[in-house]
Amino acid sequence: MSEEKRGWYVLRAISGKESKVKEVLDAEIKNTDLGNYVFQVLIPTEKVYTVRNGKKVVKEKNLYSGYVFVEAILVGEVIHHLRNTTNVIDFLGGKSNQPEPLRPSEVNRMLGAVDEMQEVGDEPAVVYHVGETVKVNYGPFNGFSGIIEEVNNEKKKLKVMVKIFGRKTPLELENSQVERE
Q1: Which residues cross the membrane (predicted)?
Q2: Domains and CATH numbers, the chain
């Protein structure tokens, strides 16, 4: 009826419910025979940095909203079981009732993107140098421009000399609070 080949398949899920689908499938993999046929459930995400109330906030954002990637051997009732998982709409692609696996190049691209996101661990560092002109983009001095006097790469802080009311005033700012002019 179906080929006994291990491959990556894409499940279309209700948008915003991808993590619930992963949770349910992971639990079933551990507790039932489904674990013999389904090996990995993956939702590729990326880390997004934002500044809220003066604090850096890290959020995870889905790279492919509405999709869950599953590494499985689709034999017997496995297709039916995956299709009928809560919050799953159907498999992506495929003709008739047989889902189509991703091509190796697509899998490598998807897994490569996931690995890159895990390696990045911290915010991509912007390197500033003494003497550069920067503009403050957050905080009480938003909109002011100044010249970098000191750079502390370990703490990701800068000492910026800003002219306020005609006088030079030193400010200690985080790298995320300024941008190059």
Answers
A1: none
A2: 6-120 (3.30.70.940), 133-180 (2.30.30.30)
